[in-house]
């Protein structure tokens, strides 16, 4: 995989490494959208790991290449390997170290920005080899996420190794980016960081509010409850299905619109198990560019997370996107700073539990919010205050500026 030409280099250049591919919706919203703005003031080199299926979509790839070229971003894509897991990831790390080493030396790069844990392994190695500055964009408590998601046992070797690396990252980083104030406070309590914690900046997963804004179209008749994104692992989709079943009692004209890429069979199965009639459900797979138009048809959004320790470090992208579109949301507590935003700004409901009475009370409050005059404007204001892409870019820019050597 290769897209770019060799250039002379710039001592203010940043090497940004993402193990998420930028051909994926997440990569476009949470990597490329930021870098397009950051590249205005400095040279950006992006090393990403792309999944073969995404790379095979030539039309989508050409669109991303055109965006990179227009922004002046130098893209160095490599193939993502999945199996066998440990060997595949080790191979990708080795590739990342080799490519990163060449870029740092040939382009005179002084700062390496590692998005999450696997790129941080590359950054830790390259910092020791070259002295490059290391920004650890933590994203969340990844090792604990693996345990909380049932993927690793807490007493297992993989968890211990990952936590060992996490400690090395935090002790070696020149700057740390956290998604939530809750996780930043938690890091401050880690015993090994007492008196040694690096500078920490909180930057939630921001939304491009120029794209995610109230739609000009007319919504469908009735009440449309919207669900956007994944439905497995971290999400309590059965609770969503049960909640929508109760909504049909309160609003017989309600419909559920689901925007999801790959889990349609599972979603239909869980909705059927909850007794939700298939004719009131609309499931769609759309490109990331089409999501705002889908949201424009929704009156409210819903998503529930499994409560766990690692969720305190989670900042759901969809929250900023829903609010940017003027849509109040129903979710649950124990997820980063989300409850403070929903309840504190009066733009949604954060549930304490998922029993029938709690769901019904939450739905009644949500319906009241939807009917409140000026609710769309209130949601947009909250989105700008908490999830503005411009604010996120400004904070990232300040971090990169601080990494530059004194003149």
- Tally of strands: 13
User: Under CATH, the topology of the largest domain is which?
Assistant: Rossmann fold
In DSSP terms (H or I, runs of 4 or more residues), the helix count works out at 16
- Strand adjacency order, main sheet: 3-2-1-4-5-6-7
- Give a quick account of the main beta sheet: strands, pairing sense, barrel closure: 7 strands, parallel
Based on CA atoms alone, the radius of gyration comes out at 22 Å
* Low-confidence parts: 4-9
Query: Into which percentage range does the β-strand content fall?
Result: 15-25%
Spatial gap, N to C terminus = 37 Å
The CATH architecture category of the largest domain equals 3-Layer(aba) Sandwich
What's the CATH class label of the largest domain?
Alpha Beta
Output the structural class: alpha/beta
Q: Return the domain count.
A: 2
CATH superfamily of the largest domain: Glycogen Phosphorylase B
Topology as a string of helices (H) and strands (E)? EHEHHEHEHEHHEHEEHEHEHEHEHEHHH
What report would you give on this structure?
This protein is of the alpha/beta class and 407 residues long. It has two domains: 14-204 and 389-403, Glycogen Phosphorylase B (Rossmann fold, 3-Layer(aba) Sandwich), CATH 3.40.50.2000; 223-387, Glycogen Phosphorylase B (Rossmann fold, 3-Layer(aba) Sandwich). The chain contains 16 helices and 13 strands. α9 (237-250) links the parallel β8 and β9. The longest helix has 22 residues, at 85-106. The model is unreliable at 4-9 (pLDDT under 50).
């Amino acid at each position: 995989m290769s897209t770019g030409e060799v250039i002379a280099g710039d001592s203010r250049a940043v090497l940004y490494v993402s193990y998420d591919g930028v051909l994926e919706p997440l990569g476009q919203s949470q990597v490329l959208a930021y870098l397009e703005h950051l590249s205005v003031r400095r040279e950006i080199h992006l090393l990403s790991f792309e999944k073969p299926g995404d790379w095979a979509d030539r039309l989508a790839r050409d669109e991303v290449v055109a965006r990179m070229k227009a922004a002046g971003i130098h893209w160095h894509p490599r193939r993502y390997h999945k199996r066998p897991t440990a060997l595949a990831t080790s191979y990708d790390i080795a590739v990342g170290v080799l490519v990163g080493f060449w870029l740092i030396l040939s382009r005179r790069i002084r700062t390496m920005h590692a998005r999450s844990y696997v790129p941080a392994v590359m950054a830790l190695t390259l910092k020791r080899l070259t002295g490059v500055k290391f920004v650890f964009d933590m994203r969340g408590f990844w090792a604990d996420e693996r345990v909380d998601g049932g993927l690793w046992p807490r007493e297992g070797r993989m968890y211990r190794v990952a936590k060992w690396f996490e400690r090395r990252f935090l002790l070696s980083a020149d700057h740390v980016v956290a998604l939530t104030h809750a996780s930043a406070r938690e890091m401050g309590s880690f015993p090994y960081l007492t008196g040694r914690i690096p500078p920490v900046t909180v930057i939630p997963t921001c939304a491009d509010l120029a794209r995610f804004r109230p739609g000009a179209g007319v919504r469908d008749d009735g009440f449309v409850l919207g669900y956007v994104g994944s439905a497995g692992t971290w999400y309590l989709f059965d609770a969503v299905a049960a909640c929508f079943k109760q909504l049909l009692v309160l609003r017989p004209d309600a419909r559920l619109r689901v925007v999801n890429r790959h889990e349609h069979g599972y979603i239909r199965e869980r909705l059927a198990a909850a007794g939700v009639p298939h004719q009131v459900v609309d499931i769609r797979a759309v490109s990331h560019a089409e999501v705002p138009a889908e949201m424009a048809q929704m009156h409210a959004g819903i998503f529930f997370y499994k409560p766990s320790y690692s969720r305190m470090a989670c900042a759901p992208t969809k929250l900023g996107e829903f609010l940017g579109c003027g849509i109040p949301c129903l979710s649950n507590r124990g997820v980063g700073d989300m409850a403070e935003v929903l309840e504190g700004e009066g733009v949604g409901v954060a549930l304490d539990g998922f029993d029938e009475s709690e769901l019904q009370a939450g739905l009644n409050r949500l319906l009241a919010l939807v009917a409140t005059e000026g609710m769309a404007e209130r949601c947009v204001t909250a989105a700008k205050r908490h999830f503005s892409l411009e604010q996120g870019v400004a904070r990232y820019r300040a971090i990169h500026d601080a990494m530059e050597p004194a003149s």
